[in-house]
Amino acid sequence: MGKGGKASENGSVLPSPKYVTMDDVREHNTKGDSWLMIDGKVYDISRWGGKHPGGAKILNHYAGEDATDAWKSFHNDKEFVKKFMKSLYVGDVKDKEESELQADFRELRRHVEDSDLLKTKPWFFCLQLGHIILMEVVAYCLMSYMGATPLSFVLGAMILAVAQSQAGWTQHDYGHMSVFPSHKINHIFHHLVIGHIKGASSHWWNFRHFQHHAKPNVLSKDPDVDVPYLFLLGDYVPKSWALKKKGFMPYQLQHSYWFLIGPPLLLPIYFHIENVMFVLKRKDWVDLGVTLTFFVRWFYFYGPLFGGWEAFGLYMFVRFLESHWFTWVTQMSHIPMKIARDDKQDWFSLQLATTCNVEPGYFNDWFTGHLNYQVEHHLFPTMPRHNLHKIVPQVRAICKKHNIPYRCKSLYGAFADIVHSLKKSGDIWYEARYEG
Fold this sequence. Notes:
Layout: E1 5-7, E2 13-15, E3 19-20, H1 22-27, E4 29-30, E5 33-38, E6 41-44, H2 56-60, H3 68-74, H4 78-85, E7 89-93, H5 100-114, H6 122-146, H7 150-175, H8 183-197, H9 202-214, H10 236-243, H11 254-261, H12 266-282, H13 285-306, H14 308-331, H15 347-354, E8 357-358, H16 362-368, H17 374-379, H18 392-401, E9 408-409, H19 411-435
Parallel strand pairs: 3-7, 8-9
Antiparallel strand pairs: 1-2, 4-5, 5-6, 6-7
Helix pairs in contact: 6-7, 7-8, 7-14, 8-13, 10-19, 11-19, 13-14
């Protein structure tokens, strides 16, 4: 405990803060005993995880660590959030350290906030939502006019797949709180877009996606790379599973069967199962109710046109088409990058090691929902996507100063690297299993 105290503005003496060391913080790194540091202050989040809007898992991913940059990246309403943190306060860290890289990134963060790069252009997101609704209307009118023919079925499904893919990028904006200043309004629109327009659970998406952002490509912490029974990713898992003789797939062929059970099935099969299991396990009846409004709308419009089973077939065909688009775009920036256990890198180094960009351009920006700026999006996840390109030069400058690779590929090259990476990992597994 510190000695003495300091005077407040009214002359009373305030108690001195309690001091702890970073070694103390590191000792509290388990699920039931979790401390983390933010801006030099330590908080005990051991029993608070269940109250955290993002869930307990994302908090525990930083147990025993400096969570300053992660916390600032996820929260735009910092002063509001700090009110809930007061009761969790443990003490100040007396041996807090800040590397030159961390200092440079935090200075960039201050520049981003001071330059209003976290503020939205409302017209941009109005156009995004408007063109999605327009495509939904065009698809229905086209199928109504042409009647229940194979041609109208295919053409309508293609238009709807484009609308659904773009809705996927748009719900991502609301989910990251990057559209409205109010978190409440962002949450409402996220429920409406992902629930009513896409037919999925908002809370399921938050639970899964924010873990990915907190520790991208970190094994046991990022659910996007937790797929070992189907695919072995990176260098560590293939060798580990081979030596333990785990798994049942011919992983040396995973770069080939990726085209059969990867993009074609992610949305139609895997995500449907995950969504249903999540809302039922959590008894999340609000999310379930909003999701059901999508299916009521779908069968109300397409049931009379095609009949019940054909309307369901239309839905699954749209998901099949959309799944290819979604999977290639979301995985092109991560699967070819570093995938390993948590080595507790600082925020900037972790994001640059596990993400890469794709060349900018009007088509690439639209096609990927600006996820071609994956590096900048991961560094500043609440930044409106129309501003991401503005921060590229500063991010590149930090990378150059600290000799950190900044990777930017062509769209085709990024897609091809997914397959190359899968083949490399499969070869590692085969060599360790049969030739090592």
